[in-house]
Each structure stands twice: as C-alpha cells, then as structure tokens.
Amino acid sequence: MVTPGASGGGVRRDTVVRIENLCKSYRIGVLELPVLNGLDITFYKGEYVAIMGPSGSGKSTLLNILGCLDKPSSGRYMLGSQDVSKLNDNELSTIRGKQIGFIFQSFNLIRQLNIIENIEVAMYYQRRPKAESRQRAIQLAERVGLGDRLKHRPFELSGGQQQRVAIARALANDPLIILADEPTGNLDTQSGKEILVMLDELNIQGKTIIVVTHDEYVAERTHRAIHLRDGRIERQICNGKGRE
Amino acid sequence: MSEISSLFQISLRSLWMHRLRSGLTTLGIVFGVASVIAMLAIGEGASRQAQEQIAHLGSTNIILKTVKPSDIEIADASQQTIQEYGLRYDDAERFRDTIPDAQVVVPVRRRPQQAQYRSRRITAEVVGTVAWYPELVPIEVRIGRFLSSLDMHYNEAVCVIDETVQDTLFQFDDPVGQDVKIAGEYYRVVGIVKDVSAGIGDQEQPSERSSQDSGITGSIYIPLPTMKSRFGEIQIQIGGASGVSGERVELSEITIKVPTMDRVLPTRDVLAALLDQNHKKKDYQIVVPLELLRQAAQTKRIFSIVLGSIAAISLLVGGIGIMNIMLATVSERTREIGIRRALGARKKDIVVQFLSETILLTLIGGLLGMMVGACIPILVTILGRMPTVITAGAMILSFGISAGIGLTFGLYPAYHAANMDPIESLRHE
Ligand SMILES: Nc1ncnc2c1ncn2[C@@H]1O[C@H](COP(=O)(O)OP(=O)(O)O)[C@@H](O)[C@H]1O
Ligand SMILES: [Mg+2]
C-alpha cells in the first residue's frame, strides 16, 4: 500500500488529502481578515506530518478545515477521492464521523460518560450495532492500555490516560486520517512521550497522522514538518526518519 | 428500539446529575398535570353521579319532599310542642285531580321503627306507600310480590322487606309467611325486594334521617293506608331542649311521573304554584332529576374553568421553566455538544438528544403529576363528598400533554444546541 520513497522521487504514492489554493478569511464587522492564503498541500497515505508555526499563523484553522469542522472560503479540498469543500453540514458530519479521528489538546472527553461509552460515542453516530461497538470499544481501550479502567469516568484518570482514551476514540471508526492539535500540550513530559510513542506506533501500522505542534521534539518524529506563517507555507522540512 | 432506550438512558443520566434542579423544574408540569387529572375526575364523577341518579330517580319524575322549615324550630319550639308541616294527602289528591300530565302519583311516608322477629330486633325504615310504587322506582321483587291494591283497600297488615332486613332480621329463616312485629303489631311478609341503593332524593342535602347516622338497617314496605291508620301522623320525640316534642307529618314524599321529558319542567312549575297556594311555609322541596343533569354540567363547568385555568397556567409556566433550564443545560454542555459534533453527530442527532431529555423530564413530571392528580380526587371525595372518577382516557391525555409540553418547549433549546458552531463549542470554557 504505502510505497516508500524519497520525497520528490519518481515513485508514485497514494494521496489521502489534497488542498489546492485553499483560502480562509474571517469577517470581523466590515473587515475581511485573511487567515489562510492559498495553501497547496498534499498528504500521502501513511504519512506523519507536523504543522508548525507561530501562534496565530493559522495552524488550528487549517486543521479545522482538514477535519471538516470548518469550510474554506475558497479553494479545493479533496479527501480521498471526494471533494468536500462543497458538502453540506449533514454530509460533513458523516465525513467527520467516518473518515476523521480527532485528538485535542484538552482531551475533550464527555465527563458524564465512562471510558467505554466515550469510545462508543463515535460509533453511535455511525449507527453501528450496540454489541459490536461495545466489543470494539473494549478492544480499543485495551489497545491503549486502559483495559482495567473501562468503567472509570474521565476525571478519575490522569491527563495521559485521558489522552489515550481520546486516541482510542479517534480510532473507533477506522478513519482515513488522524488530526491532532497539540496532543501533548497539556501533558507532562513523561505522559507526552507515551502519547507520542503511541502515535508513532499508529503511523507504523499505516495511519496517516497530521499533528499541529510547537514542539520541535514532536516535529522530529514526523516525516515532514510544514511551517506556516501568516497563512502561507514558510518552509517544509523533510526528515530522514520515515523515509527509510 | 434499543436505540431509543439507550437514548433515554443517557438522558436520564444527565437529568440525574442535576436531580434537584430537574425536580424543581418539573413542579409546574406536576401541578399542571395533577390539575388536569383532578379536573377530569371531578367532571366525570359529577356527570356519572347525575346519570346514575337519573337512572335511579327517573328522568320523567318530579319528586316532592317534605322539609322541616327552619324558622319553626326556633320561633315556635318553646310554645308549641307539636310541629305540623310537610306534604299532605290532600296535596297528592290535588295533583292527581288537577294535573293531567301527572300520570302516576306516588305518596310515600317514611319513619324509622323497631322491627322484631322472634328475639331479634333491628331498626328499619318503614316505608308506607302504594301498590304502584314500583312504577316510579326501579324496585326488583326477588321472592313473593310487592304490595297490592287489595292490601291498600283492606288496610292489610302485610309487608315487603328488602334483602338487608332479610339478612339481619331473619338470617337463615325463610321470611315469606312469617310475621314481623313493628310498633306492637304484626305484619305478614309477602315479598322480598332488592335493596334500593341510597336514599331517594338528592344526596346533596343531608336529610334529617340519614340512614348511616341513625343506624337504620334496611327498608320495610307496608301499605300507606295501613300505616296511616296504625301509626297516625304524630311522632313524639322525648329529649331535646323542651323535653317532649312532637311532629306531625303526613307524607315524606310525593313522586309524580309525567309522560315525556319535555313535560317535566312545565309540570314542575304547576306543582310549585299549587304547593305555594296551599302551604303557608316552605316545608317542601321540589327535586327534578332532569335538573340534576344541568347541575352536574354546571359543577363540571365550574371545575373545568377553575382547574383548567390552573392547569393551563401551571403547564405554561412549567413549560417555560423547562425551556429555561434546558437552555441553561445546553449552555453548560456547549463543550459536550462540540465534541459530539466533531465525532460525527449531525444537527439532527443533537436535536434528538436534547429533545429526548426534555421530553423525559416532562414525562417524569407528568407521571408525578398523575400520582398527585390521582390523590386530589380522593381528597375531594372524602372532604367534599363529591364522587370522582379517574378514567384511563384522562391518564392517556395527561401523558400526551406532558410529552407535548416537552416537545413544544424543548424544541427551541434543542435547535439552539444543534446550531451552535462546533469550533466555538469546542473552545468553550
Ligand atoms: N472564528 C474566528 N473569527 C475571527 N478570527 C479568527 C477566528 N478563528 C481564528 N481566527 C483568527 O485566525 C488567526 C489564526 O488562528 P489559529 O488558526 O487559531 O492560529 P494558531 O492555531 O496557529 O495559533 C488568528 O489571528 C485568530 O485570531
Ligand atoms: Mg491553535
């Protein structure tokens, strides 16, 4: 599936996400505030990409558009073989549920639900049979090392554990891409490391991961780091790692 | 199905997290639904009572009753020891002779008396009446016969007893052919009839001889002429303020049957005029069973207006309260909504979630209201001596109202929740 090769090499790789001349601006009163200014990026299957840049450079905005939580003002966004820039709210919701796994800086678990239920929520909206979702939720919880905490509620867990639940939840519907916005931003070094190891493993198993980060340490682990500034790509750095 | 149950389970958990708040919020619904139940129960009770009374009293009957005039008690009690009042035989004759519509006229005289059979004694109501009494009152002969014209003509010492008397006085003996001793004289039992439920006339005014209070068991029917000749008209009471007092009352009741229902009211007016001419005091009362229907409708209307207003206001206030609390819930759970949206929840899913929570809340309120509402009619029956009937229809209606309130007032908060921007929701707090 993944055809490894040096970037820019002649070997063809499967495209997962492709944005073309993507623009996003916010209207504040009468002013148009441009945030993303004509981005062209292609993400390949099995790639692990970091998006970096100073605060306010548009990283989160880009990630939200990639995650179909927001719509571009103009330009094209191809997810898999589908043009999602023209879809309506319902269709976008379905794409979010099926194709995208989110991991947030602040974990964003639902506090009144326990761990299994938090993982199940994602499958609930895909109308998967209850018994099947339950089984898969348990498997996923075990996979992230929380098999003994199934009935615990989020506030009974450490930050690192909560983020692991979030990873399990992101994997629930076997999405095309995993989007993580500063996944280690709220964690101590040790827990952060554990989460990063987990993301590495996912990537090795073939998942496409896009992570927004400030942290060079995080970026070093990825194949490619895209630096944004004022909504434009400032530079891209390809790491030897992952290129084999 | 399991989807709905799991939806309600999740909703229930959210409500449980704020149980005090949820409980207080539902109070309006509780009272509203309780009022609806009470209103319907009282209304239904009133109309059923009226229908039963009419079936019992006859819709084409007019009942005249002797009433002790209130003024003579005070003014004359000291000077006059025998009070004379009430309906008389000549009243009955006059009606028969002068009112063409009076098809059947039944005079009745009642009086509590001790009855004895062998060594057993009871106090029964002795009813002096005529042979055609069963034409007006649905009385069912079980064994033997009712009083006959011959009994009346010859002043026979015969009686017809009801089943209560049979059970208490005769127990296992066969009463027919036996003699019952009443006020020193013997009467032969010629028939047994079924008990006639409740006293004849209206239950609204407790009469001077309320059968429960004075320990009267059952009725014994004897021919009116026999009663007249043997008992006389004077009843002496020993005791009371002036020591010995007496009352002279000829008839307790006169019932008149007219051919059709539309003749009831005109005949009533004629009767009222005749009585007014011939009675100095207002010592009688006219009961028109047909009017009970109107009274029942009136009672029903008053209760419907009062309780209906309470219900409407409570439900409106309750609904607004619920909407308010749901808006608060939505804003508290903005983050959760954002998370769910990010995980693939469509707007519709969010609407359904919050709507189901609101409906669950109102249904719980409705259920509590039904329980409270079921208690109010019981209290009304005990304290207000008013019959009430709780119907399945009322319960279903209340359930529907609660669900409807939930739907109506839950819709806005639910749409508000669904239309929040997912990105902003995720940033919330
Ligand atoms: N909803 C919005 N309305 C107006 N401006 C916004 C909105 N969201 C983001 N912005 C602006 O867009 C810019 C980029 O924001 P963001 O993508 O969050 O940056 P980053 O994640 O790189 O720090 C910022 O200047 C921010 O103020
Ligand atoms: Mg950001």
Describe the structure.
- The complex is a heterodimer of chains A (244) and B (429).
- Chain A is α/β, with parallel strands linked by helices and 244 residues long.
- Chain A is globular, with a radius of gyration of 18 Å.
- Chain B is α+β, with helices and mostly antiparallel strands.
- In chain B, strands 3-4-9-6-8-7 form a 6-stranded mixed β-barrel. In chain B, strands 2-11-10 form a 3-stranded mixed beta sheet, with no helix packed on it.
- In chain B, helix 1 crosses helix 11, helix 2 packs antiparallel against helix 12 and helix 11 packs antiparallel against helix 12.
- Chain B is elongated and about 105 Å long.
- Chain B has 2 domains: 185 residues, no CATH class; 186 residues, no CATH class.
- Classes of the chains: A alpha/beta (244), B alpha+beta (429).
- Chains A and B meet through helix 2 of A and helix 1, helix 10, helix 11 and helix 13 of B.
- The complex binds adenosine-5'-diphosphate and magnesium ion.
- Magnesium ion binds next to helix 1 of chain A.
